[in-house]
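Bug: token stream looks shifted between consecutive jobs. Job 1:
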Amino acid sequence: MLDFGLIDSKDMNDYETKYLTELSPGDEITGEIVVGEFKTMPIGKREVAEFYIIITDIKNRTKWVCEFTTPYYPETDNIYGKNGDVFYNLIDSLNHVVNKTPLNWHDNYSVNFSRFRQTVNKCVNSVTVKALQPDNPDAKTVNLQILYANVITEPEINPPVSIYELAQEDPILLMAYAHLRNKGSRITVENIAFELKASFDDGKITEQGYHSALHVLKKVKDGV
């Protein structure tokens, strides 16, 4: 691929920045989501956590800055969402969209912030969010409901297999496996490879069969 010096639009600084206070009930925004780090501050005898979620609307070149302030429990690194508040609606609807739980699944949520931030930033690429009328008439911002989340799934990795499992499907490996068992030798990848080489040198298997068996052996974990 040739480098023509093109700059990814996400790296540009000409995005318009907007805030949660600029949303009205019924508005929808779609974009890439990032959960920022939090800072704590004392309020009375307890601590609260303040953090930001940024939703970057690449199509409209807008960054939406959503501020959250929740009770924080340092002994567990948990934040708290109560039914009706902004964070509650966000986490409840996100859980509903991704994990198919009912809306208003619990009356409140205690959420480990580090796990929440890591999972969203690693596994959720983009979201569509709808602004809702807040339950509290004195609230300064709308509530947020996740309507859609694009979840990044990691490719499925086949579980490791043993030499025994592969030997049941490959007659050349089975011959080497049986020979080692009959001698009372340890069944290891190294010993199987040695048996295959000896069989090839003795003319018991062809060169193609020898290399094919070695290739299959690369899939195995060491052991019986």
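Job 2, same session, no restart:
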Amino acid sequence: MSQLEKLTLSLVAKDRNSFIDGTQLHNDILYKMAHLHTFIFDITTRNVIFSQVILPFSDDVRRTFIERGYHTDCYIDYYSEGINLCHVYSLPFTMKRMYNVTNSFPGGLFMNVRKLSLSDLFIPFEHDFFVKISQAFPLVSQLALLNMWKQQKKLTDEQTCSIIEYSHLVQLSLISAHTDYVKQFLFNSKSHLPCLDTLDVKYQDLITVTDNFTTDAARDNCAKLKNIIFDATPFVYSENFYRYFPSL
């Protein structure tokens, strides 16, 4: 390992007493790699119980990498005591996957990412957040959501929002998401999914959003679906179901 020249590290750690930062990585691992010239990383630390009173900011974590010559970005979420998250990653980001993206994600451009997970256990994802995500990950083909919080910023009938384009999205998982996010992605007025092939969703949510497979609001984004994975398979599908998903 001391002869290693390139290291790619994707890591999720939890239940520690500090966030993983550049200082710890150097002292524990990197100093042993004298020939290392390329270090690509995506590191998430969650649920840290801190011993110190003053909690670190994202700039503090980022600085420990920059001081050692690594260009990084970082964000931190503090929800309550012992419930927190620090996500730090190298730039430019060359991995094809990124996980644990929360509302605090600062944005950027990640042309290599094809598989993405969005997760926030305490704050809902609003429409503006998805605008940022679509711009930051323009080539994402697999997307999964974990967020059971109802959206708070509701549009009135007189208000309109920008339609978000997910030009390359093929697989979408909403099985661990609130019903609002089924609307967010499937309603034609909110999102355009020209390549969507596979949907992972709760059956009851789909009934609710499509008004028992009769509303036109989601028809365009559902027309090309070839696979739908439900949390529980119904015994009988309605006649409207097959009309709504003609490509199944």
